[in-house]
Specification:
Elements (H helix, E strand, L loop, with lengths): L7 E5 L5 E6 H9 L13 E5 L2 E4 L5
Antiparallel strand pairs: 1-2, 3-4
């Protein structure tokens, strides 16, 4: 997975049948435990001023 920069792979059992799909992040979580994405900042998309008013960032997508 790492050599080819793949994020997911198909898991094959001993008989050549498909056993499932594995992702790199899920594999790491199984080995070391829950991993948070520390690089992704949680940004507030909007702020509720009152029932009828919201403040929204102009660059919101």
């Amino acid at each position: 997975m790492r050599d080819k920069n793949y994020r997911m792979c198909v898991v094959v059992d001993e008989f050549g049948g498909t056993a499932g799909i594995a992702s790199l992040s899920r594999l790491v979580e199984e080995i070391v435990g829950p991993v948070g994405d520390e690089l992704a900042a949680v940004e507030k998309e909007y702020e509720v001023i009152n029932e009828y008013t919201f403040q929204i960032d102009g660059s919101m997508r």
